[in-house]
Design brief:
alpha/beta; Rossmann fold; Pantoate--beta-alanine Ligase, Chain: A,domain 2; six-stranded parallel sheet; three-stranded antiparallel sheet; 9 helices; globular; binds pantoate
Length: 273
C-alpha cells in the first residue's frame, strides 16, 4: 500500500492509471462501516484509494474537532489488510489555503435536519468532498447510507456541478445490538450505549408499522417518538428520497431519519423504506 500526503503527488500518481479508480473518503477511526465501503470499492474497482482527513471546516465552533478520535497507525493497518492500494493522508495546509473558495450547501436541503442543528456543516462537507474528488478523480466514490443527508447533498453536488464521478451508496453496518456503526460511538458510556439502542428500536417499530400497512407519517413519527422520548431528540423525519416532506409514506421511495443527542454525543440513523 502506498501512503501519499501531497495532493499533487497523488494526482500525478493516479493520472497514469488506466484501470477503474474507487475512492473512499473518511475522517479515520475506521470501523466495520468503513470496511464495508472499502470492500464495495475493492469489488468494483482495480485501484482503491482511501483518504483520512479530519476536515476542520465541517465542525462548528464547540464541536469535537480537537477530540475527534484519531488512530492513524491502526487505520493504516486496517487499510493495508483490506487491500487498499493508496492511502491519502493530507495535512490541513495541503487541503486549505488562506483565502478560500468555498462551496455553499443548497438553501433548503442543506439547512434542514442536521443542517438546522449544525448550520454550515454541509458547506464544509461539500467543500472538502469536492476538493478530494478533484484530487483523486475517481470513477466511483463510496459513501455510507447512514449519513443520508450528506449522501443526498453529495449526489446533488455531483449532478449540479456536472462532475463525472459516480456516487455509490452503501448500506449501513450495525453492531450486533443494532447500533449503527459510527466513529463517535466510542464516546458513549455503558449507560449511554443502552440509551442509544432506542434509536434502532424506534426504527424497528417504524418498520413493523409499515409492514402492517401504516402509511400515515404522523402515526409512524408518534410511535417512534414514544420510544425515543426519554432522550434529547434532534429530529424524527419521514421524507421522500429527494428530501421533501411527505404526509403519506410511499414504500420504496421514502426515508426515515433520526437524530438524537445521547449525553453529549449526537447520533444519526435512518432506514430507507
Ligand atoms: O462522512 C465523513 O466521514 C465525512 O463527512 C467525509 C465525507 C469524509 C468528508 O469529510
Amino acid at each position: 500500500m502506498k501512503i501519499i500526503s501531497d495532493p499533487y503527488v497523488l494526482k500525478e500518481y493516479l493520472k497514469s492509471k488506466r484501470e477503474r479508480i474507487g475512492f473512499v473518503p473518511t475522517m479515520g477511526a475506521l470501523h466495520d462501516g468503513h470496511l464495508s465501503l472499502i470492500k464495495n470499492a475493492r469489488e468494483k474497482c482495480e485501484v482503491v484509494v482511501v483518504s483520512i482527513f479530519v476536515n476542520p471546516t465541517q465542525f462548528l465552533k464547540g464541536e469535537d474537532l480537537e477530540s475527534y478520535p484519531s488512530k492513524i497507525d491502526a487505520d493504516s493497518k486496517i487499510c493495508e489488510i483490506a487491500g487498499v492500494d493508496v492511502l491519502f493522508l493530507p495535512q490541513v495546509k495541503d487541503i486549505y489555503g488562506e483565502d478560500e473558495v468555498r462551496l455553499q450547501a443548497p438553501d433548503v436541503r442543506g439547512y434542514v435536519l442536521e443542517g438546522a442543528t449544525r448550520p454550515g456543516h454541509f458547506n464544509g462537507v461539500l467543500t472538502v468532498v469536492n476538493k478530494l474528488l478533484n484530487i483523486v478523480n475517481p470513477d466511483y466514490a463510496f459513501f455510507g447510507k447512514k449519513d443520508a443527508q450528506q449522501l443526498n447533498l453529495i449526489m446533488l453536488m455531483v449532478k449540479q456541478l456536472f462532475m463525472s464521478v459516480e456516487i455509490v451508496a452503501v448500506d449501513t453496518v450495525r453492531e450486533s445490538d443494532g447500533l449503527a456503526m459510527s466513529s463517535r460511538n466510542v464516546y458513549l458510556s455503558t449507560e449511554e450505549r443502552k440509551d442509544a439502542l432506542k434509536i434502532a428500536a424506534s426504527l424497528r417499530e417504524a418498520t413493523k408499522l409499515i409492514t402492517q400497512g401504516e402509511r400515515d407519517v404522523r402515526v409512524i413519527q408518534e410511535a417512534m417518538l414514544q420510544i425515543l422520548k426519554p432522550l434529547e431528540i434532534g429530529y424524527v423525519a419521514i421524507l421522500s428520497r429527494e428530501f421533501e416532506y411527505i404526509e403519506s409514506l410511499r414504500v420504496g421511495e421514502s426515508i426515515i431519519l433520526v437524530e438524537v443527542l445521547v449525553g453529549s454525543t449526537r447520533l444519526l440513523d435512518n432506514i430507507w423504506v
